[in-house]
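Annotated sample (chain length 258).
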Amino acid sequence: MSPSRRQEQVLERLRTRHGRRKSDVFLVEGLRCCREALDRYASGIEFALAGREFADSAAAEPFHAALGPRLEVVEDAGFAQYAVTENPQGILCVCRRPEPPPPEARDPFALILDRIQEPGNMGTILRTACAIGLGSVWLTEGTADPYSPKAVRAGMGAQFSLRLHALPPLGEARVQLAAIGYAPLWLAVPGGGTSCYADEFHLPGSGLVIGNEANGIAELDAGRPVRIPMPGDAESLNAAQAATILLFEAVRRRILGG
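Output written by the structure step:
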């Protein structure tokens, strides 16, 4: 068997950044991420593709049962041409992009990603947000696509457990967030500002902003800088590392996770 011509065209578009940007679907590859899609977003799977060896294995049984004719089986030699990873695991899904949810304050605080560019950082931060129990992440205009293949792999499918809100540039976003109860904004910076371990770092009802890897957070005249103490001589941490430390401080303080 082979995919239909339409499915082949969709898969071909999803292999390039330009094609993904214009598409209303995204690619999920690998057993772990595809299982997350199946468990949490089965209705959003347009179709799935499986290599023959995987399709005949026990691991494929939930996909056959849930997807039925939406699961196409191809010979293993042909599967690799549709995959984007170097060592494909024999299964991929093409999913519809979820509509951005309406802005609402469901979490104790808002995690805001301001123009994060590296898909690996994006996925890692989403995975951490999911791990600490956040239900939403807020993305300003200019932030990397959270549904790119690399971001989905780095997130291990966390995208299927989170509400991903689209925001305008940070200056405008601050007003929108304040209107639903998230104010002030804490701005993660490499130096200066309040220590994340100080009592003054009060997260409930506020927003925590993680900025662009190279340029930091967009200029904002209303925000409170927060830093991670670094006794060594490093200038800064990777954006995903910094986000992890700051987010797990919320767990330590029992803001999340009881």
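Annotation: The first helix runs from residue 5 to 13.
Annotation: The domain at 110-252 is CATH 3.40.1280.10 (Alpha/beta knot).
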